[in-house]
Amino acid sequence: MKRELLKFAAFTLLILLLPLLFNGGYLMNVLVFVGINTMLAIALNLLLGYAGQISLGHAGFFGLGAYLSGVLTATYDWNPWQAMPVAAIVVGCMAFLIGFPILKLKGHYLAMATLGLGIIIYIVFNETIDLTGGPSGLSGIPSLEAGGIVFDSDVKNYYLIWGVTLAVVLFSINLANSRVGRALRAVHDSEVAAQVVGVNARLLKVQVFALSAVISSLAGSLYAHTMTFISPASFGFNFSVELLTMVVIGGLGSVYGSFLGAALLTLLPEFLRAAQDYDIIIYGGLLVVMVMFMPGGLVRGIPELFRKVFKSRGGADHA
Amino acid sequence: MFFIPTQTPTLTLMVREFLFQKRDKMLFDQILQYTLSGLSTGAIYALIGIGFSIIYNATGIINFAQGEFVMLGGLLTLTCLDLLKLPIWAAIPCAVAVSTLAGLLFERLAIRPLRQPTPINLVIITIGGSILIRGLAMLIWGKDTHAIPSFSGDEPIAIGGATILPQHLWILAITVVIIAINKFYFYHTISGKAMRACAYNRRAAGLVGIDVRRMVLFSFMISSAMGAVAGIIVAPLTMIAYDVGVMLGLKGFCAAIIGGMSSGIATVVGGLLLGVLESLGAGLISSGYKDAIAFIILLLILFIRPQGLFGKADSERV
Amino acid sequence: MLEVTGITQIFGGVTALEDVTFRVNRGDITGVIGPNGAGKTTLFNIITGIYNQTSGKVFFEDKDISGLPPEKLARLAMVRTFQNIELFGGMTVHENVMVGMHTKSSSGLLSCALKMPWSISEERRIRNESMKWLEFTGITDLAEVEAGNLPFGKGRLLEIARALAVEPRIILMDEPAAGLNSQETQGLARLIKKIRDLGITVVLVEHDMELVMDICDRIVVLNLGRKLAEGTPREIQENPEVIAAYLGDDD
User: What is the pLDDT of residue B4?
Assistant: First the structure.
């Protein structure tokens, strides 16, 4: 556990110092998104990497958090600091309730069911025009304020978002190395054996599903308040696939892997700006290549690669 | 509803009878119209759904990319007609052949080399594959929607108070033919029976000398061919673009789930049911939520009766 | 202690078990034997809550446990091991046993994630206490090995250690000697006796006749889904029906 804390401290330092490297500018805006996507990727990873349950509808929870918080603050003048937790609780309860029937399904069926759920949520965003503004989106969402500071610039948003993201990272690391984290991984490895030693697999899966939804909702609310404008297009099936790609590329079951995957997939389109439309081909290609050649993700694959390279060079050292 | 004065009872009664009748008749015509067009889209869903079932039964894989072959069928036909200037009766087989080739390549390149075929990996790789195919389609055909001409003109045909187009009849006819060919293949040819054997018991099939890997390949090829045909026959009615595959694929999957993953009548019924319910719902309740109807049905079936409406015991496995 | 009455299990058209009734005494080592296809594993799966029987009841410590799921049975101090060992391959040997202590701990999701003080001290306790089960089964040296990399014999021992961490009053083992060589089987026999000496009742399904006759106090014989006989090893060995059914062919 000491090692984990050290890693976390190093990571925190990196995040704190990054803005100084880039000195503001456009990249800061992108780094804010990296923070949000990291939060989302970790949320999905808890479900997919630790508990082994596939979800192709996570953009839906993200969107629910964004719209609930956005509508409550923009249309009904709620205080964002009240709207965000309320949104999270509502989404959490929804996920808890729907988790029971949906997590009875396994493998492909679960994937399809979550996909369907995500799309239904997306359609609702598009059709409830009076509430959400429909395809044209919802604007006028207030920024967050705290202690006299208004979070309306990229640098301020960066620290706000990353503050929350780092908390989520620590939360997940603690969870992974705990009784509940072990129970989760046990359910993933052998559900029946976990049950035999007393793990209520069904309840645990639903709890993680709800937790994952709550974190996604939080990310969505923060997204709404930093962007001040949201539209359904950001919360559709394509984004769910993007999240899945982030988690798979980074490495299932690895919190830092989720960061890697999120960072890569958020930064890549920026560097390939000319290839705007090609991003979906790249995601598809990455998914296929990763699953075939590096199923453990970058976080395991790269050290493996290094090991292989060094092994082939200095064979005598590894007696 | 109009307020009808009660001072002149006979006239009132007559007017009321007439209005009710007219409204009922209009309603009836509307329902008929939606049902008929729903049957035709339902036939498409059925073809796509059968494609899902064939692959699932032979391999245990849900091919997320199934919808993309539907899209390819339509777009390839367009190219054959426009670019290669082929007549329609040549363009269609050409398009189907190329789609089948795409299915073959997909299985060879994406499915077979997979070292750890866990459900998660298979889901991810079929999703990735579908995205790649979609992306390539976008590169080749751009983002615009295209149309291909109807097979035999656009003269509407009246049935009762509703109208259908000749293309609707083509859809129903071709679907029936495909299903008949399917039935014949799976029950009266050696290779079809071999594929059913794989569906029932893969290991036993391998032990009696059936080349299971080749059956897997065939199942992908047959499904992509069927998907392509579905895409071609519906293309004259709906526009085709590089991204039509996603929704069509999902709805086809829904049809397959209703039918309990059967590759026979049960999925056909599932598809027709879905098409009609969707059409009625969109017409009578709200058109914006049209797509949601299919997914709500999907969720309901998966929650309440995951073995499909007709249960595994009765429906065919392959 | 464990009483099984009238258990019948019908799968589709096949009657796997028919009207099976027997009892297990506290503190005994009871063996369940029978030719292949006799229904032994099906019976086990019914007792341990993995299947629901078509009819009949299971009583544990005079309480009707018919139909209870495995996780509830663990809290009632009943645990089982599997014929094809079901390890948590992605975790270390030590972590596997720690999961066994799930019912002996209670920190919830939030307490764990927020590192509440009681969850920290509970984690320390779980870590330390689980070690003693590794010592009991003799695999302490493998504590940090990934469970998926264990040789089969050690994997068996791990599964037993994990089951013991539940602190059960009864442990049901499904063919624990399967896949073990004769040296490992002797070690297993000693281990099972040690378990009994802790006061835990043991029930095992087995094919290895030497092991069964050696350590069991009572034996139940199943054949073709029915109970054929019940008694001490001597009685079973001398029962002509049992001999006819299978003892003659198997050794």
Answer: 47
Mean pLDDT, residues B64-75: 91
Distance CA B295, CA B255 (A): 11
Residue that has been written with the tokens 């890997």 in this structure: B213
User: How would DSSP label each residue in A26-61?
Assistant: HHHHHHHHHHHHHHHHHHHHIIIIIS----S-HHHH
What Rg, from alpha-carbon coordinates, does chain A have? Answer: 20
Residue length, chain B?
Answer: 318
Q: Looking at the predicted structure, is the pLDDT value of residue A72 above 50?
A: yes
Q: Compute the mean pLDDT over every residue in chain C, rounded to the nearest whole number.
A: 89
Q: What's the Cα-to-Cα distance from C226 to each of C40, C99, C216, C235, rounded to whole Å? A: 10, 36, 21, 18
Q: Looking at residue B315, what is its pLDDT?
A: 32
On whether any CB of chain A is under 8 Å from the CB of C125, the answer is no
Separation of alpha carbons B159 and B259, rounded Å: 29
Q: Which residues contact A279 (CB under 8 A, 6 or more apart)?
A: A268, A269, A272
Cβ atoms B126, A286 nearer than 8 A: no
| C236, C242 Cβ separation under 8 angstroms | yes
pTM of the prediction?
Answer: 0.88
Facing residue for A182 by CB, picked from C87, C91, C163: C91
Task: Record the tokens describing residue C41, joined without a space.
Answer: 């594993």
- Smallest Cα–Cα separation from C222: which of C3, C1, C7? C7
Nearest to A36 by CA among A230, A276, A290: A230
Cα–Cα dist B209/B201, whole Å: 13
Task: Determine contact: A287 vs chain B, CB below 8 A.
Answer: yes
- Residue B21: count other Cβ atoms within 10 Å of its Cβ: 10
Neighbours of B312 (CB within 10 A): 14
More confident residue, B107 or A270: B107
Which residues of chain B does A105 touch, with a Cβ-Cβ cutoff of 8 Å? 302, 306
Quick: pLDDT tens for C167-215: 999 999 999 998 888 889 999 999 999 999 999 999 999 988 889 989 9
User: Backbone phi, then psi, for C204, in 5-degree steps?
Assistant: -135, 140
Cα gap A83→A221, rounded to integer Å? 8
pLDDT in tens, A182-223: 999 999 999 999 999 999 999 999 999 999 999 999 999 999
Return d(Cα A50, Cα A241) in angstroms, integer: 19
Q: How confident is the model at residue B311 (pLDDT cuts 50, 70, 90)?
A: low
- Chain-chain contact of C102 with A207 (C-beta, under 8 angstroms): no
Q: Does A107 touch chain B (CB under 8 A)?
A: yes
Measured distance CA(C124)–CA(C104) in Å, rounded: 13
Q: What residue of A is the nearest CA neighbor of B61?
A: A108
Tell me the shortest Cα–Cα distance from B261 to chain A, in angstroms.
12
Is residue A275 within 8 angstroms of chain B, CB to CB?
no
Q: C77's torsion region: left (phi>0), alpha (psi -120 to 50) or beta?
A: left
User: In this predicted model, what pLDDT tens digit does every residue of A255-286 receive, in sequence order?
Assistant: 999 999 999 988 887 776 656 667 777 778 88
| Amino acid symbol at A233 | A
Residues above pLDDT 90, as percent of chain A:
53
pLDDT of residue B286: 78
- Amino acid, single-letter form, for residue A169: V
Neighbours of A8 (CB within 10 A): 17
Phi, psi (deg, nearest 5) at residue C178 = -60, 130
Chain A residue with CA closest to C47: the answer is A196
In this structure, is the dihedral angle defined by the CA atoms of residues B28, B32, B33 and B38, taken in order, positive or negative?
positive
Find out whether B193 and B274 touch, Cβ atoms under 8 Å: no
